[in-house]
Amino acid sequence: MIKTILFPSSYFSIRNVDEDLKAEYDAATETGLFNIVLFSYDKWFNEGKLVLDHLISEPCTAIYRGWMMKPEIYTNFYVQLIEKGITLITAPNEYEHFHIFPNVYSEIITDTARMAVFPEGKSLNVDEIKKMFNRFMVKDYVKSVKGTSFPKYFDSSVTQEEFDKHMEKFFNYRGDLYTGGICIKEYLTLKRYGDRTNEYRVFYNDLKIKSLS
């Protein structure tokens, strides 16, 4: 049974958990069932150095609950943890497969929006895109930039010049987190409950649902 959970620390102190994950950290701690390990957010994400808040007395398997990383960074993370006696339940090849959306698209194609993939370096011809979709949204291979000034979607009225200017913003927003290439997805109007969409996040372990929110 897995009894170790790895969390990122607060940016300011390795002794405190990342503020955005405190509720989950507190819940895990209160059960008394888990060994909680923190790693320095600042050292890892800014310097690539893995620093833990305490040493592991014996090798263990752990769940990582934290922020996404590019596949190559996760691989380095995984390797450095093994050197410290911690093996994450998700191997680098598994992480990359499910982290990069085009990798799994063919497996869920009947249950997700239509999509066109443009590898890094391939030009985005908006007239060709408009032939495929009446409305479309933009993300890279991992994530969109929702919650910013970037448009939620584009429609048939957008010109190439307008689209190119917006894409400059997109690349600026993603910055160092930009991954792989561009995914153009059909924009669908989801069912809403007040100001919330009918959307759920499910966590699995050993092919079993562990939480649904």
**Sheet bearing the most strands, described?**
4 strands, parallel
* Biggest sheet, spatial arrangement of strands: 2-1-3-4
According to CATH, the fold-level topology of the largest domain is Rossmann fold
Order of helices and strands: EHEHEHEHHEHEEHEEEEE
Whole-number tally of structural domains? 2
| The CATH top-level class label of the largest domain | Alpha Beta
Number of helices: 7
- Portion of residues within helices: 25-40%
Gross geometry: elongated
- Rounded mean pLDDT is 94
Separation, N- and C-terminal Cα atoms: 23 Å
Quickly give the structural class.
Answer: alpha/beta
Number of E-state strands:
12
Unreliable spans are none
Bin the strand percentage.
15-25%
Can you tell me the CATH architecture of the largest domain?
Answer: 3-Layer(aba) Sandwich
Gyration radius, to the nearest Å?
Answer: 20 Å
Quick recap:
This protein is an alpha/beta fold and 213 residues long. The chain has helices spanning 22-31, 41-47, 71-83, 92-99, 101-108, 126-132, 160-174, and strands spanning 4-8, 35-39, 60-64, 86-88, 115-119, 135-140, 154-155, 181-186, 192-193, 196-197, 202-205, 208-212. The chain contains 7 helices and 12 strands.
